């Protein structure tokens, strides 16, 4: 059975007003796929993410969620298809972990905002999957960066959308917690058939864990499986080679000593 395309971009140009930041971005992501967006500082990763969740307009081209153009979705329809975890610090840190995760059910609750049994089930499932039961009564400001990141992803999970977008979900985390978060994302796409797209500077980890990588390079913006991109030597020109080199044998970046 052919996998379903959950999100795609066609000939997408992104930027601010008359300032183009990245051009001709093309990709298609199926359900059950984890995709990392990589590229040097300032190349447009966060701009792409913000464009993909309609926080800013595309300059050209089309984004589709399933078979519908993002432009044609109402904000309620969008919030049932697409959840977003951005880097900006959350305004609601005064809430407990449970309360923050419960907010994710807003697209489904009635006008009073009361939670049904089904809503409560989604919230409890998320707490279970992300092992947050022992933290659920804690205030969000009391959490470590790694714990808060897990809570934010749990909230996106409880929103029950086909697509989850995350902006740098592993910043400020130590190596163990970076790997833990990325493995959780991998588990989500495989066990729950989600499509997850996240921006990252952890290219070595993305190469090991992602099904697809979108490499914003300011030219071709290649998209493919990590091994396809390695074979086509796209990683080799990403950084100046006198500083960092790409080792094709191990599929990882090394310091050029
Ligand atoms: N609100 C804005 N208005 C105008 N230009 C902006 C705005 N936000 C970002 N930019 C510019 O857009 C470009 C891309 O920024 P963006 O934050 O998308 O890059 P990035 O790849 O996510 O960078 P980093 O890896 O450093 O987080 C930069 O040149 C930045 O200065």
From TrEMBL:
Main localization category: membrane
| Compartment list | Cell membrane
Keyword presence, rRNA-binding: no
* InterPro entries listed in its UniProt record: AAA+_ATPase, ABC_transporter-like_ATP-bd, P-loop_NTPase, Siderophore_ABC-ATPase
Q: Name one Pfam family in it.
A: ABC_tran
Example GO molecular function: ATP binding
Query: Where in this chain does the record put each ABC transporter domain?
Result: 7-242
Print the keywords alphabetically.
ATP-binding, Cell membrane, Ion transport, Iron, Iron transport, Membrane, Nucleotide-binding, Transport
* UniProt cross-references to SUPFAM superfamilies, sorted A to Z: P-loop containing nucleoside triphosphate hydrolases (SSF52540)
Q: Does the keyword Membrane belong to this entry?
A: yes
Recorded topology in the membrane? Peripheral membrane protein
SMART domains membership: AAA
Q: What is this protein called?
A: ABC transporter ATP-binding protein
């Amino acid at each position: 059975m052919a996998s379903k395309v959950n999100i795609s971009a066609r000939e997408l140009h992104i930027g601010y007003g008359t300032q183009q930041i990245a051009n001709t971005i093309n990709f298609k992501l199926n359900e059950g796929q984890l995709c990392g967006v990589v590229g040097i500082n300032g190349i447009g990763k966060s701009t792409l993410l913000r464009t993909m969740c309609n926080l800013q307009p595309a300059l050209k081209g089309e984004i589709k969620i399933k078979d519908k153009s993002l432009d044609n979705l109402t904000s309620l329809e969008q919030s049932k298809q697409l959840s977003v975890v951005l880097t900006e610090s959350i305004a609601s840190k005064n809430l407990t972990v449970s309360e923050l995760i419960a907010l994710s059910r807003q697209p489904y609750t009635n006008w009073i905002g009361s939670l049904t049994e089904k809503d409560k089930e989604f919230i409890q499932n998320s707490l279970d999957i992300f092992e947050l039961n022992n933290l659920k009564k804690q205030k969000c400001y009391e959490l470590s960066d790694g714990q808060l990141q897990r809570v934010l992803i749990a909230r996106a999970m409880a929103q029950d959308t086909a697509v989850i977008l995350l902006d740098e979900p592993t910043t400020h985390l130590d190596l163990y917690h970076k790997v833990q978060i990325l493995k959780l994302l991998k588990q989500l796409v495989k066990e729950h058939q989600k499509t997850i797209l996240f921006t990252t500077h952890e290219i070595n980890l993305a190469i090991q864990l992602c099904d697809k990588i979108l490499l914003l390079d300011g030219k071709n913006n290649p998209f493919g499986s990590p091994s396809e991109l390695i074979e086509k030597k796209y990683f080799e020109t990403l950084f100046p080679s006198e500083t960092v080199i790409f080792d094709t044998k191990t599929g990882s970046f090394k310091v050029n000593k």
